[in-house]
Design goal:
alpha+beta; TBP-like; 7-stranded mixed beta sheet; 4 helices; 7 strands; about 20% helix
């Protein structure tokens, strides 16, 4: 991929154990000084509680389970768009996210899917019950 070509990065991880979205957001905040999850009160995620963190053209969204559903769990989504080479982009994001990004091919939907890498990184950092969600 050339520098001018836009790269769409995505990662989705599901936390399958019972989790409190507020507590999980606090734990995730401890991973890096480069981002801070804050409760999203804009109404953008009105059906579920959500926390967001934005940095360097990228974002993390942590979704809790719906109050009307009997599902326990949370989903963490990382997304970014960049024209930078991935090695350069890694230097512009918090170290935790930089550990997730590596060279790879785009999937059938045109994304660089780092779900597996994010789940592995979270597991290595002591988060249990998380698994990658395939995107495309």
């Amino acid at each position: 991929m050339s520098k001018s070509e836009t790269k769409n990065l995505i990662a989705l991880v599901e936390f399958t154990k019972d989790c409190d979205v507020s507590e999980l957001a606090a734990r995730l905040n401890s991973l890096s000084s480069g981002f801070v999850f804050v409760r999203d009160d804009t109404g953008r995620f009105e059906e579920v509680p959500a926390f967001t963190a934005e940095f360097g053209g990228a974002s993390l969204v942590l979704y809790g389970s719906s109050e009307t559903e009997n599902e326990a769990g949370c989903v963490l989504e990382f997304s970014a768009r960049t024209t930078e080479e991935l090695e350069e982009f890694r230097t512009q994001v918090p170290a935790f996210i930089g550990r997730v990004i590596s060279a790879k091919y785009t999937n059938s939907r045109g994304y660089l899917d780092f779900s597996e890498e994010l789940a592995n990184t979270l597991s290595a950092d002591g988060f249990t019950g998380c698994k990658p969600v395939k995107f495309g």
